[in-house]
Amino acid sequence: MSKVELAKGVYWVGAIDWDLRYFHGYVTQRGSSYNSYLIVDEKVALIDTVKAPFVPELLSRIKEIIDLDKIDYLVSLHVENDHAGGIPAVLAACPNARLITSAPAGIKGLEAHFGPLEADLIKTGDILNLGTKSLHFVQTPMLHWPDNTMAFLPENGILFSSDAFGQHYASGIRFADEAPHEKLFHEAAKYYANIVMPYGAQTLKALDVAAKLAPKIIAPAHGLIWRDAKNIKQIAACYADWGAYKTKEKAVVVYDTMWGSTAQMATAITQAFIDNNIPVEKMALQQNHMSDVVVEMLEAKYAAIGSPTLNNNILPTVAAFLSYIKGLTPQGRVGLAFGSYGWSGQSPAQIQKAMQEMGWQTPLAPFKLVYRPKTEDLSSLQEAVKKLIE
């Protein structure tokens, strides 16, 4: 793939990672991209680098446009290695480039990775003049690291949004309006659910920034570039809802099972939601990765989580899932804990405790059954779901 022009003198020069399948604990079935952007004006600025192994790909694209010694600034918006990992090699290849990063978190993070560095430090409100174009910086801490920064190019209406509005999406196309709509927004939701969800307040602040700037193009650090006004409006609306932890009348039933008893309970719960006109997803953790489950939970009001009891505890798959979603802190949920057991039966209470620690409503007692559920047991469970909805 060659470089891609976003506007006159503004180019995507990043790298495509077709083979990436795991990132930050979640599966990335569609790979990813590491987006780097080149602005050519009286002064030349490169925004972010790429993951270190992809530096040759980055440099080859830059050389299609300009000699490497013509780059005046290397702007680091985020210190994570998928964006900043190539900084040492890029600085070595671009001898006249001056490093620019945020203070204090940006320089602190970069030096923790690479040792002492010479850099110009920027903060919110600072402007880097490139000639006829200029970069305006806005720090967006904890979206999703302390150093995250956005840069706005007002002359072209381009917002370089760092990790906000991204997707893990390897593709031969570069613009969101060229992608299948459902696939694109699924990947955007998965990215938000698994990376950005804990930072709802910071998301809403960043949206305020973006709204005031009114960008015509949003160029994220991963995935496809938003340039269609309708798509920009829709992804902004999604981020507003997700950042406010808004939910819909939707349910997710998550479980693992040893000998099928808890699976029968999960099936009965799923049917109860269907019977009460609540859209529902039934997701067994043996067949579904927890990062895919989290996408379905992003907007779901109801979460039923089940596990049999093993050694006085929760099955390891369910315990790992609970640990994962605790870190993501989904808020405003209504939970139901359930599970079968043989002689001790601690797991449903442990699941409910985890739900309560996340601040979820748990209006019903944990539902547990001994060994194989009887027909009347499953009927009682379905009545419990009806009460939960009411």
How would you sum up this structure, described in words?
The chain has 390 residues and is of the alpha/beta class. The protein has two domains: 4-243, Metallo-beta-lactamase, Chain A; 251-389, 3-Layer(aba) Sandwich (Rossmann fold). The chain contains twelve helices and 23 strands. It has helices spanning 55-63, 81-84, 87-93, 105-114, 181-196, 200-213, 229-243, 261-275, 290-297, 316-328, 347-357, 375-389, and strands at 4-7, 10-12, 15-17, 22-23, 26-27, 32-34, 37-40, 44-47, 73-75, 98-102, 119-122, 127-129, 134-139, 149-153, 158-162, 217-220, 248-255, 280-284, 300-306, 309-310, 313-314, 334-341, 367-370. Helix 5 packs parallel to helix 7, helix 5 (181-196) crosses helix 9 (290-297) and helix 8 crosses helix 12.
CATH class of the largest domain: Alpha Beta
Per DSSP E runs of 2 or more residues, the count of β-strands stands at: 23
What's the architecture of the largest domain, going by CATH?
4-Layer Sandwich
Broad structural category: alpha/beta
Low-confidence stretches: none
Strand line-up across the major sheet = 1-2-7-8-9-10-11
Gap between N and C termini: 54 Å
Q: What portion of the residues fall into strands of 2 or more residues?
A: 15-25%
The named CATH superfamily of the largest domain: Ribonuclease Z/Hydroxyacylglutathione hydrolase-like
